[in-house]
């Protein structure tokens, strides 16, 4: 039996870590390798794409894609974690911003912003996760980072709670945005809820929950939940290798144009390629540098 490979667009529930979600998926599908695309904090819920088997080799190509979040912001308090799970550092219920003022501050957050990274985050500091250092009281924050914020929309506001929708790039902490907004308003603010609604190709409409997966597993249809990596990286060209060259390819030999089924399908202006066998199974990936083919990965 061939190894399971592909992506599960898992809808992570609240109160579990991304690591726990991956562990659950690994056990459910019986795979040795599994890895998620973009961490979600335990407080957060929403889509957490998880790569299985050889699809883990493609995580780097999926990480940089745009993301969307729906977050609830609670005004009036500031915590060390920038969310409601942390210790309260300051509070202020004297300032109640107007709807117009809140929109004004949110609009000013768009673009590339240098913001403080939460101490309770997965960012690595000298090889150690920041949250591990924060639990020991060794750091107050995890430094700063440039975060690319495409847009922020105010969806609802009823003091002290407001709901915002954020579209952003890789490495953006919604908690950092909310903490900065609260400081600018003078009222302070923390994140009280978070839903990731989009992560590149993946969105809520094509996600799947634990209950749905358990039902599919019971019905023997678990494979229906797996998304082919080629459907996600659909800009990559797909080419077939000849059966004669396949053993050489699996030993690391780089094919030339004569080793493909049809030379007409090869376009050396393409950046990346999926190389398939005659049955359509991915056996390797390659990139093109200066019109020359270079193997990225070979799958045995």
Describe the structure.
This protein is α+β, with helices and mostly antiparallel strands and 300 residues long. It folds into three domains: 6-64 and 202-231, Pseudouridine synthase (2-Layer Sandwich), CATH 3.30.2350; 67-184, Pseudouridine synthase, CATH 3.30.2350; 235-298, Roll (Archaeosine Trna-guanine Transglycosylase, Chain: A, domain 4), CATH 2.30.130. It contains eight helices and 17 strands. The protein has helices spanning 18-29, 59-62, 99-108, 130-135, 174-185, 210-218, 229-232, 246-250, and strands at 6-12, 34-36, 45-52, 67-75, 77-79, 88-91, 111-116, 124-125, 128-129, 144-158, 161-168, 189-199, 202-203, 237-240, 272-276, 282-289, 292-298. The strands form four sheets. Strands 1, 2, 3, 4, 7, 10, 11, 12 and 13 form a nine-stranded mixed sheet that branches. A four-stranded mixed sheet has the order 14-15-16-17. Strands 5-6 form a two-stranded antiparallel sheet.
At a glance:
The protein is of the alpha+beta class. It has helices at 18-29, 59-62, 99-108, 130-135, 174-185, 210-218, 229-232, 246-250, and strands at residues 6-12, 34-36, 45-52, 67-75, 77-79, 88-91, 111-116, 124-125, 128-129, 144-158, 161-168, 189-199, 202-203, 237-240, 272-276, 282-289, 292-298. The chain is elongated and about 75 Å long.
């Amino acid at each position: 039996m061939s190894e399971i490979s592909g992506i599960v667009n898992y809808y992570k529930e609240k109160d579990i870590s991304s690591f726990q979600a991956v562990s659950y998926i690994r056990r459910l599908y019986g795979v040795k390798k599994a890895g998620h695309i973009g961490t979600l904090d335990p407080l957060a819920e929403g889509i957490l794409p998880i790569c299985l088997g050889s699809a883990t080799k493609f995580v780097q190509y999926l990480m940089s894609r745009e993301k969307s979040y729906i977050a609830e912001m609670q005004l009036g308090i500031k915590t060390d974690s920038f969310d409601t799970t942390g210790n309260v550092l300051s509070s202020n219920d004297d300032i109640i911003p107007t709807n117009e003022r809140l929109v004004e501050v949110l609009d000013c957050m768009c673009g590339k912003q240098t913001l403080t990274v939460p101490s309770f985050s997965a960012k690595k500091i000298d090889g150690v996760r920041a949250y591990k250092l924060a639990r020991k009281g060794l750091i107050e924050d995890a430094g700063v980072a440039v975060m690319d914020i495409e847009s922020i929309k105010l969806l609802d506001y009823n003091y002290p709670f407001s709901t915002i929708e954020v579209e952003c790039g890789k490495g953006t902490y919604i908690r950092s945005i909310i903490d900065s907004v609260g400081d600018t308003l003078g009222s302070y603010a923390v994140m009280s809820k978070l839903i990731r609604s989009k992560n590149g190709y993946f969105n809520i409409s094509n996600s799947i929950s634990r209950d749905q997966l358990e039902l599919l597993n019971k019905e023997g249809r678990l494979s229906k939940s797996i998304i082919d990596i080629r459907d996600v990286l659909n800009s990559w060209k797909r080419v077939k290798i000849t059966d004669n060259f396949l053993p050489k390819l699996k030993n690391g030999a780089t094919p030339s144009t004569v080793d493909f089924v049809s030379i007409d399908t090869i376009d050396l202006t393409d950046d990346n390629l999926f190389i398939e066998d005659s049955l359509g199974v991915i056996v390797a990936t390659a990139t093109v540098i200066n019109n020359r083919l270079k193997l990225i990965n070979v799958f045995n």
